[in-house]
Amino acid sequence: MKIAIAQLNPTIGDLSGNAQTILQMAQVAANQGVRLLLTPELSLCGYPPRDLLLRPQFITALAQKLLDLASELPPQLAVLVGTVEANPYATEKGEKSLFNSMALLQHGKIERVFHKRLLPTYDVFDEHRYFASGEEANLFVLYGHRTPETHLKIGVTICEDLWNDEQFWGKRTYQVNPLEDLANAQVDLIVNLSASPYTLGKQGLRESMLKHCATRYAIPIIYANQVGGNDDLLFDGCSVAINRQGEVVTRAEAFRTELAIAEYDLETQDLTPSTIQAFPSCTEAEIWAALVLGVRDYARKCGFSKAVLGLSGGIDSALVAAIAVEALGAENVLGVLMPSPYSSDHSISDAEQLVQNLGIESQTLPIEPAMSAYDQLLDPLFAGTEFGIAEENIQSRIRGNLLMAIANKFGYLLLSTGNKSEMAVGYCTLYGDMNGGLAVIADVPKTRVYALCQWLNREQILIPPTILTKAPSAELKPGQTDQDSLPPYEILDDILARLIHHHQSPQDIIAAGHSPQIVQKVSRLVNRAEFKRRQAPPGLKITDRAFGTGWRMPIAVVIGNW
C-alpha cells in the first residue's frame, strides 16, 4: 500500500491557494496509485496563523474551504488535511473555542476529525492561546481491498503529540503520551502531521526520537513536515518514514516542496525502503539552504520581487548580498554603496568587486553632503561638545534613510545586514543599519558569518578574499575597528552562546575561563540593547534562541549577578 507525504509550503491565510496545492498533490498521488495522502499540521490555512484564529470569518471560510476540497479530491484517495474545528464544549467547560485538527477527507466528504492532544507553549509556540486539547486517542481504519488483511489501523498524531516519550527525554512534559495510547490500541502504523520549525541540527534530534519511538513500540512511523518560510520561522521539511527496526526508509528533500511516497508491505506489516534524500552535507550548507529559502519565501509571500541592501565592503553585507542573489536572482538585487569621508579605499573597492562577482546592479551615493547638512543643522545645539557616538550614528541613519527611500520609491524589499553578535550587544543603530523589512542574518553569530563565507568560496570566489582577512569596522570615524568597542568575536560569541543559549550566569561564564570584566560588560550590553531588538525587523530564525518570536525578555529590568 502506497502512502504519500505532501511536503507543502503553505502561505498563511491563502485558503484557496493552499487548497489548490493540496488538490494538485492529491491528483499526482492518485495517478501513482497512492491510497493515503498526508499533509502537514494546519496545511489548509498555513502554520502559524496566530491571531487570524481570533477572527470568526476566517474560521467560517476555513470550514467552507475544507468542504469544497473534500468534494474535489480523487474519490479513490484518502487525505489527511490540517485545519481547525470549533470546540462545542468551550463555554460549558471553560475551554478555548478551537481545536488544532486533522480532517480525514474521503469519498467526497469529511469522514473524521482528529484533535491535537499536546499543545506547546514554549519558544515560538503559543497554542494554549487559541486551542483546547484533544482528549481521545486518534485512530482510524484505512480500508484496502475487501479482505481484512488489506486494512490498516492508523494512529494519528499532530506535531507535539510525538514529543513526549519519557524514555527518550528522561521525563514527561505533559501528563499523557499519545504514542503510548496508540500502541495500547494496537495500531499498525502511526502518522505524525507536523509544522515543526527549523533550527540548526534539529533533524538529527527528530530522527533519533522517531527511531526510538518506532523501536520502543514496534510500530512504523511516518512523519510529514511543512517546508518553507513564514515570517521569521523557517520549516525544513525533511519528512521521513521509519520502519519497526528504527531504520529510515524514506526521506523527503530538505528545504523543498516534494511529494514523497512510502510503501507499506501488508505481509510484513512494515514500511519498505524507497527514496531517501540526503540531508545537506555540512552545517554551512544547511544554514545556507535555510537562509536562502527564508529570503525567497518572505519576499514572495509579502509580494516583493526585488531587494535592495547597503554594501559597506564588509563581510555581513557581502554574505546577505550572496544569499539574496541565490534566493531572488542577481537581476533582482540592487546593492547601494554609500561611502563617507571615513570609508577606506579598500572598503569601496571590496564592495565594487563583490558587485562584479555576484553580477548585481549597484548605485553609489556618497553621503558627505548629507553629513555636512546635518552638522550645519545641529551645530547650534551641539556647539561646545565633542564628536562622539551621536555624530557617528547620524552617518548610519543617513544610509538607512537613503535605503528606505529607494525601497519606498521602487517597491523593493530592504534587507538588513546585521548579525547576531551585533544584535545581542546593541552594536547597531536604530533607524540606521537596523532599517529593513527582513534581517537576514540576525540569528547568525559573527564567527559563523566568516565560516559561511569561507564555505561559499570553496569552489569559486564570490566573497572577495580581502573582506575575509581585514579587521571588521563600522568605519564611522578614522581608524575605527569593531574591537575598539567589543572583545574579539571568538570570545564574544562564546560568551553570548553561554549567556543566551545555555542560560549560564556571569559567574558560570567567568568560571569557564573568561575575563570577569569582559563578561560583566557583555552581560550589561545584552540587557541594555533589548529596546533596540524590540524595534528590529523580523530576523530569520536558525537557532533555538533567536531574537524574535520566541524571545520574550523585558526591556525595563534590573538583572543582578544571579
What does this structure look like?
- The chain is built from 18 helices and 21 strands.
- It has helices at 15-31, 56-72, 90-93, 166-169, 178-184, 202-217, 283-301, 315-328, 345-358, 368-382, 389-410, 420-425, 446-456, 465-469, 489-501, 506-511, 516-528, 530-534, and strands spanning 2-7, 34-38, 78-86, 98-106, 109-115, 131-132, 139-142, 152-158, 189-194, 221-225, 227-230, 233-236, 240-242, 248-251, 258-265, 270-272, 307-310, 333-337, 361-364, 413-416, 438-439.
- Helix 7 crosses helix 8 (315-328).
- The N and C termini lie far apart (58 Å).
- The relative contact order is 0.08.
Structural class: alpha/beta
Overall outline: elongated
What does the largest sheet look like? 8 strands, mixed
Oligomer: single chain
Strand residue percentage? 15-25%
Number of strands: 21
Low-confidence stretches: none
Rg for CA atoms: 26 Å
Average pLDDT confidence is 95
- Share of helix, binned: 25-40%
What's the end-to-end separation, in Å? 58 Å
If helices are DSSP runs of H or I spanning 4 or more residues, what is the number of helices? 18
Keywords:
alpha/beta, eight-stranded mixed beta sheet, elongated, 562 residues, 19% strand
Architecture blueprint of SSEs:
Blueprint: E1 2-7, H1 15-31, E2 34-38, H2 56-72, E3 78-86, H3 90-93, E4 98-106, E5 109-115, E6 131-132, E7 139-142, E8 152-158, H4 166-169, H5 178-184, E9 189-194, H6 202-217, E10 221-225, E11 227-230, E12 233-236, E13 240-242, E14 248-251, E15 258-265, E16 270-272, H7 283-301, E17 307-310, H8 315-328, E18 333-337, H9 345-358, E19 361-364, H10 368-382, H11 389-410, E20 413-416, H12 420-425, E21 438-439, H13 446-456, H14 465-469, H15 489-501, H16 506-511, H17 516-528, H18 530-534
Parallel strand pairs: 1-2, 2-3, 4-6, 8-9, 9-10, 17-18, 17-20, 18-19, 20-21
Antiparallel strand pairs: 1-15, 3-4, 4-5, 7-8, 10-13, 11-12, 13-14, 15-16
